[in-house]
Amino acid sequence: MKPVQSSIYTLCLGLFFTLITSFSVHAQNNFAHINTQQLLSEMPEVIAVNKELENLEKQYTTELDSSVKEYQTKAQNYAADAENQSDLINQQRSRELEGMQQNIAEFRQTASLELQKKQGELMNPLIEKARGAIEAVALAQGYDYVLDSSPGGSVIVSNGKDLMADVKRELGF
What is the C-alpha to C-alpha distance for residues 37 and 151, in angstroms, rounded to an integer? Predict the structure, then answer.
């Protein structure tokens, strides 16, 4: 090669590597990740909410256990005394036990729904608070995308270009 061609080749090669490096660095700066499950589990407010929910669950469990014990005691007493009672009394006791079983099942279901509802009421504002903080940090540090690195995570912040319209146009619709 001639010296002029060699220096042009070297210059082009250097420019190419500079561009590749700058694109690579730029692309790396546009993406970040965070494990939101870990973040939430370490937030002091979430820890307090979890304690509150545990206490509520303990209340429901205590009440449920009490009802089950009462049912079991009555069922044992009624079974032991069934021979000494008339059919009418035994039928009435059987209906009473069935009603108790139904009440226990309803309480179990209602308690579960109440716990879920309470969890949503208490956790949703904290989840939004965490999301807002993630978005603020991403904006301040210049990230276009923040990925949730939690198992099953997704994109949290998406400020980059949305290709939907361009792809639809490419596909002809």
Answer: 9
Nearest to 76 by CA among 93, 92, 61: 93
User: Are 146 and 156 within 8 A, CB to CB?
Assistant: yes
- CA dist., res. 56 & res. 62, Å (int): 10
Percent of the chain with pLDDT over 90: 53
* Three-state secondary structure of 46-89: HHHHHHHHHHHHHHHHHHHHHHHHHHHHHHHHHHHHHHHCCHHH
pTM exceeds cut of 0.85: no
Tell me whether strands 31-34 and 145-148 are parallel, antiparallel or unpaired: parallel
First to last CA, the chain: 52
93-98-99-101 Cα dihedral, nearest 10 degrees: 130
Percentage of the chain with pLDDT > 70?
79
Q: What is the pLDDT of residue 138?
A: 86
How crowded is residue 21: how many other Cβ atoms within 10 Å of its Cβ?
10
Span 14-36, pLDDT tens digits: 444 454 544 444 444 588 888 88
* HSE (side-chain half, CA atoms, 13 Å) at 88: 0
